Amino acid sequence: MKNDSSEAEFTRKRMKLYYKICILAALTACVLQVLLIVLSWLMTAAAPDLYMRSMLGGEGLRWIFGHFTENMQSPLLVWILLLGVAYGTVKGSGIVGAMRKKQDNDYRTRIALQVARSDPFFPGTLMQTSSKRPVGLNC
């Protein structure tokens, strides 16, 4: 009993830390974005002979929205999104915890794990996610 409450407290503290880190990362990204916009405006105002677009001007906004898809097509962004989806799926399904405690699983969970291991698409999924470029993503 005492161990369960200390484990729950530890999990609660970890989640609080995780949320604080996420909030800090989002806040940092927003501050950097605003700083980038202000600096681009200052640079174009201070040195108009530079070939630099202010993000606050009409031409800068047209360039941002016109090149948005080009900016989002980086392979790094595709991999970050793919790994995020895979991590969320694995964590949400609880498959790692079920595989760790094999003896404590009930009959239904053991059968589900056996079916998942014998899935004919499993090797293909592994090959697809371990390839240099994800198949089906045009990047």
Describe this structure in words.
There is one protein chain. The chain has 139 residues and is mostly helical. Helix content is 75%, strand content 0%. The chain contains seven helices and no strands. The chain has helices spanning 2-46, 58-66, 68-72, 75-93, 95-100, 107-117, 122-130. The model has no long low-confidence stretch (mean pLDDT 78).
Concise synopsis of the structure shown:
The chain has 139 residues and is an all-alpha fold. 75% of the residues lie in helices and 0% in strands.
Keywords:
139 residues; mainly alpha; 7 helices; 75% helix
Low-confidence stretches: none
Largest β-sheet summary: none
Give the topology string: H per helix, E per strand. Answer: HHHHHHH
> Would you tell me the structural class of the helices and strands?
mainly alpha
**Shape call:** elongated
Percentage of helical residues?
Answer: over 70%
Tally the helices: 7
The radius of gyration over CA amounts to 24 Å
Q: Count every beta strand, where a strand is a DSSP E run of 2 or more residues.
A: 0
Give the overall pLDDT as a whole number. 78
End-to-end separation: 52 Å
Strand portion = under 5%
